[in-house]
Amino acid sequence: MPAKADNIVVSAVQSIAPFVLVFLLLLVTRVPFRASDMSMYVPLISLSFAFYFTIHRPRFTPILSLFLLGLADDFLAGGVIGLTSLILVSVPALLLNQRRFFRNRSFVVAWAGFALVCLGASAVIWLVEAFRIGAPISPFPAIVQMAMTLLAYPVLSWIFGTFERMVLRS
Amino acid sequence: MAEPAHRKGATRQKLFRKPTKKFGFGFFFAISLTLIVINTVNSPVLVSLRKEAADLSAPVLETLSVPAIYLRRFVNNLGDLADLRDQNNRLLEENRRLKDWQRLADLLEIENSRLREVLNAKLVRPQTLVTARVIAVVGGPFVRSVLLNAGSDEGVREGLSVVDQNGVVGQTVEVGRRAARVLLLTDFNSRIPVRLGRSKDNGILRGRNEDLLDLDFLPVSADVVTGDKVLTSGDGGLFPPGLLIGIVTSVGSDHVKVRPVADLKALEFVRILDFSASEMEPAPQVSIEEES
Predict the structure, then answer these.
(1) Given CB atoms, is B63 within the 8 Å cutoff of chain A?
(2) Is CB count within 10 Å lower at the N or C end of chain B?
């Protein structure tokens, strides 16, 4: 029985751990290391997280958790509530049938797939923000943010991969 | 032909799992969309949730911001060390010029106070409510705001002006108990009534989500040139009049661009001004003899 209880605890910790990691990363990106007008250069870490874990460890990214993570990101950013949630819950829906394809290909293929996801996400962000502001706005900030997200993906996927090996497979 | 029992189970599981996933996606997608729509009507529930979220995250962000600020200072100091001699010469020259300005300001202050006495006019000075530290840069590609470590517990309210050592930074928009969010004047939603320092023409300063601001709604006959100072006009009661906001950097046929004087790239400490609580003080009696 104690062994069973231990398993439950380990399993619970493992389920929460990825979200704790990504939430800490989100907090770190908010500290004032940087200039206040550099927000568009901060990568959307939660999107990288959703993409990576949907491909490699879908068990750890239930749709409810992604929804809550998106909400947390939106509340922290002070932006449109629901926007990041909308993008994050769409990731597993988009990758539902392509997961195995990306898993069995090289990193570059997964990265190219992520580029497509980023493109779609930047279009959604731009459209929703234009709707919120109520005026035509330049898509440039959204494109820059997604370009930064794409550039940061190799580093973030390495962090997620290391975390996966150290915590989730132990 | 009868299907083996384990295959039957697997098929049932597949059939069950996929619609559940699809339903989950559809359900949360719909909730997210609903939230986005609710945002546009500025729902009080969402606003209070935002304040709670700011309050909850403030202690963590405040702790994380301390090493970040030291790191930034260290990097800045390294840069400063490189040109210490040049900086010293620049500061000596600036000090000499500032002393000249101080003498002139003292003379004008005396003249002003005498004129106020003659007219029986009172001086309006906004009071510093609290000095707060920037604990987080919150925002995204289309939002420019910062989080301060002061909230309603310190008397901060929504709509107060926030300034740094150079000029206006923005305005408090969401105030929790321990933290307040400041909408920077570069944000898309920022609109500030202003007056040109030289010609006294009024306009509206608009954030463009860029380093520079747009000066709109100037009179057709407005007299504006590059280098003009832009001050708050005090219209609408949002900002106290006479706070320096920026300098006109370019004047075109259909646009006037203004660069903010506040150091928005390295905000650390800011002052929150309480305009409504400012008292109508009698003009201070200053004399050069006393100062010297």
Answers:
(1) no
(2) N
For the stretch A40-81, pLDDT in tens is 788 889 999 999 988 888 887 888 889 999 998 888 887 889
Provide the number of structural domains found in chain A: 1
Give the CATH number for residue B188.
Answer: 2.40.10.340
Domain range holding B257?
128-278
Q: Report the C-alpha gap between B139 and A87 in whole angstroms.
A: 17
Residues B259 and B246 sit within 8 Å (Cβ to Cβ): yes
Instruction: Count Cα neighbours of A35 within 13 Å in the Cβ-side half-sphere.
Output: 12
Q: What is the pLDDT of residues A3-51, one digit of tens each?
A: 676 777 777 777 788 888 888 888 888 877 655 566 778 888 999 999 9
Chain A contact for B55 (CB, 8 A cutoff): no
With a CB-CB cutoff of 8 Å, which residues 220-259 of chain B face chain A?
none
> Does B38 lie at the interface with A, CB-CB under 8 angstroms?
yes
Interface of B with A in 74-133 (CB under 8 A): none
A 35-74 residues with CB < 8 A to B: 35-40, 42, 62-64, 66-67, 70, 72
Contact A82 B32 (CB under 8 A): yes
Report chain B's C-alpha Rg in angstroms. Answer: 27
Task: Tell me how crowded residue A168 is: count the other CB atoms within 10 A of its CB.
Answer: 18
Radius of gyration of chain A from its Cα atoms, rounded to whole angstroms: 17
Q: Is residue B27 part of a domain?
A: no
Contact A31 B189 (CB under 8 A): no
What's the farthest any 2 CA atoms get from each other in chain B? 111
Looking at the domain assignment, is residue B188 inside a domain? yes
CA separation for the pair A103, B82 (Å, rounded): 50
Distance from CA of B281 to the nearest CA of A (A): 36
